[in-house]
Design a protein that fits this description.
Length: 108
């Protein structure tokens, strides 16, 4: 099982939770609360990731990274996007200097 496969399966599962019962699905609960709740969770989990990284505890870094990625996938699904949209953009950016890519976005 590749990373690509698991991220796509999770992305598909999250999209399927769109109309699930918020009482039985954490993802459905996040969807029902709207983007502000999802964004708040991304912020909380990002802060926890920062603290784990500052502590240098590798297992905690992995756990918190997983939480951040999960909540980002929820945000994507909320807006009708998926990990494939992100993958396509990553492929587009591959091999392009970060400085050049940022400069191109700033000109738009």
């Amino acid at each position: 099982m590749s990373t690509h496969d698991i991220l796509h399966r999770i992305s598909d599962t999250l999209a399927s939770r769109r109309n699930a019962d918020p009482e039985t699905s954490y993802t459905a609960k996040l969807f029902s609360q709207g983007p502000d709740s999802i964004l708040k969770k991304i912020g909380e989990e990002s802060a926890e990731l920062i603290m784990a990284a500052k502590d240098g505890k590798k297992l905690n870094i992995v756990w918190e990274s997983t939480d951040v990625i999960y909540h980002i996938l929820v945000l994507l699904a909320f807006y009708g996007l998926s990990i494939e949209d992100v993958s396509q953009e990553m492929r587009r950016r591959e091999g392009i200097s970060g400085i050049a890519e940022k400069a191109a976005r700033d000109k738009k």
